[in-house]
Amino acid sequence: MKSAQELEIVNLAQLSGSVEEQYRNVVVSTVNESCLRLAVFTGEYQWHYHPTSDELFIVLEGELLIDFQDRDTVSLKTNDSITIPAGVVHRTRSNVRTVNLCFEHTDADTVFV
C-alpha cells in the first residue's frame, strides 16, 4: 500500500498531449487486480479477444470504432463508454486521433485472431 508521500497525480490531458506516435498505449495506474490504460492512436488494432477479462473503454477525445466478429460496429464519441465481455472477438480502430481509457485485469491474456 502506498503512503501519502508516494501518491501520484496523473493529468490525462497532459499525458495524452505529449504523445506524438501514431499508436501508444500506457498503463496509467493499477487498482487491485486491474489496470487503467491510456491509448492514443489513429489506425486499427488487430482482431483479438481476452479469454478471462472484460474490457471497459471510455473515450476522452476523437471517435473510437469497435468492430465485432458477430455484430455491428459501434462508434464511441467523447464521454461514451462500453464494456466488452470476456471472450468477445473485436478490434479497435479510429480514423482520427483518438484518446481512450481502458480498464482490464492487469494479467489479462490477449489472443490474436
TrEMBL record:
MF (Gene Ontology): manganese ion binding
CDD domains reported for this sequence: cupin_YdbB-like
Positions in coiled-coil regions: none
Tree of life domain: Bacteria
InterPro entries reported in the protein's UniProt record: Cupin_2, Germin_Mn-BS, PKS_Associated_Protein, RmlC-like_jellyroll, RmlC_Cupin_sf
Cupin type-2 domain segment(s): 44-94
Classification via Pfam families: Cupin_2
Entries under PANTHER family matching the protein: 16.7 KDA PROTEIN IN WHIE LOCUS
Protein name in UniProt: Cupin type-2 domain-containing protein
